[in-house]
Amino acid sequence: GAVVSQHPSWVICKSGTSVKIECRSLDFQATTMFWYRQFPKQSLMLMATSNEGSKATYEQGVEKDKFLINHASLTLSTLTVTSAHPEDSSFYICSARDSGNTEAFFGQGTRLTVV
Amino acid sequence: AQSVTQLGSHVSVSEGALVLLRCNYSSSVPPYLFWYVQYPNQGLQLLLKYTTGATLVKGINGFEAEFKKSETSFHLTKPSAHMSDAAEYFCAVSDRRGYGQNFVFGPGTRLSVLP
After folding, report:
1. Residues near B7 by Cβ (< 8 Å), separated by ≥ 6?
2. Overall average pLDDT of the B75-99 stretch
3. What is the pLDDT of residue B51?
């Protein structure tokens, strides 16, 4: 199957700083990418959907100015957590699909810890 | 709106025993259905999916699931559990009208396999 690479796999940052997470589709062009957040022992919650070259669509309750999403190319989407706070600590997962597939491929996730 | 329920947040089975993880969905139209597995601190791996055709779907690692429209169910089974099957399992649905949109996950079921 197709491969989605997410980087970094884990990151620790100080409160008030910003952190960027990358999601790359390695062997296909991802017209759409999705960003999820997962709290411990809970399911995935969709944060936003991004289509290449256009603004991301955020789910209700997700602050678009805090979670900046850029999908500038067909193989790369980034999530930037701005002015991070401890409550932003979580596991963030991206997924990607191409226009002709019925399957979404997931990255390995990024564990963010804000101290 | 679509929703997914998974009966049992935690299921324990003995090694070699039958695995049955339950999934029921609510959707106004027949959706695409998926089962994913997640190991600790990792992303999601697709076990199997139902889109069209045969309602009994076979996946990786000996898992299979049957789509029952009348019961709005998509239960996951494996005849004989292995220690390596211990993980978190998520059932998910996706709107047929635009794959990836309205991609909803269930709350997850943690499978423990006892020696």
Report:
1. B22, B24
2. 88
3. 87
